[in-house]
Amino acid sequence: MSIVIIRNDGKTDLWKAALLRQDSTVKVYDHREDHPREAITMALIWKHPKGSLRPYPNLKCIASAGAGVDFIFEDPEAPTHLPITRVVDPYLASDMSEHVLAVILGELKHLYAYKAQQLAGHWQPRSYARIQDVTVGVMGLGELGALTAKDLARVGFRVLGWSRTQKDIPGVSCFHGEAGQREFLSKANMLVCLLPLTPETTGILNREVFARLPKGAYVVNVARGGHLVDVDLLEQIDAGHLSGACLDVYHQEPLPKGHPFWKHPKIMMTPHYASVSDTHSVVPQILENYHRLSSGKELLHQVDKDKGY
Ligand code: NAP
Ligand code: GLV
Hints:
The protein is α/β, with parallel strands linked by helices and 309 residues long. It has two domains: 107 residues, Rossmann fold (3-Layer(aba) Sandwich), CATH 3.40.50; 180 residues, 3-Layer(aba) Sandwich (Rossmann fold). It is 32% helix and 17% strand. Helix 1 packs across helix 9 and helix 3 packs across helix 5. 38% of the residues are buried. Glyoxylic acid binds next to loops.
């Protein structure tokens, strides 16, 4: 029984060290080193190269090192008949909530516009807005969205939430399904996307959805680049229907040089860093599942493959 880590973002040694620090008996390999492929029972992966899960005849579980699993379903050679697990972690949720709060307050207090004005040497006070004046709509009320919505409500925003099935979250007006989407959108001055990327949610941040938001709405996409139709966002901002957007995720990461988002004055960008798995906090659930594999117990945080999240 062994673990192989498959990722190419320079963080393999960090994960390997964190696993060994918490259990020195575990056998863990970097996929680029020589390793006994038949011994591998768990693949701990993050944006693995397509096809790289194939050469493991005794693989029993695919563990995403993050909350999202879209990149696994995007690999046509991934053995998706195996259990797929994902990260559910309090820091992943609270870091996301803090990020969204910071972005929303920054926009509310015009900090991004004032920075641009400063660079242009332009003194121009803008209209004042308070937390209580703003309704934030959170799409996706799962591990991250529910906490983000609750925290926004706690600091005084009016908060709406939208999910596939009905939720009951204190301080949050919850809508669900296609039927609830129109009313949800019609009231959201700021729209936060925290949906998983699935065939149903791909391209959900599009012209029709933007058109249903109140004029001047602001869009925050912290979920996946595939949720957003880039040209529709640009069109709606340039037409003045949307006031701007803050994006953390992109169709291609890093965002290619020359993409219009880079220089757009009303688009704020962060480099997919809203919330990142904390190895210290996440490793115990990975090790727990690794041990559950040998005892045949049900794995924690399994993905529902029919739903894709
Ligand atoms: P989660 O717990 O699986 O929650 C997903 C939520 O989305 C659920 O409320 C679900 O509704 C809802 N949903 C799914 N499909 C829907 C649809 N077709 N219509 C309406 N609602 C739908 O996911 P999570 O852990 O909160 O993570 C969400 C996503 O955040 C991840 O998949 C990942 O892509 C992204 N993420 C980004 C970062 C970053 O740094 N930018 C970090 C971590 C995660 P039901 O509950 O009714 O099923
Ligand atoms: C980050 O994007 C994650 O899915 O954990």
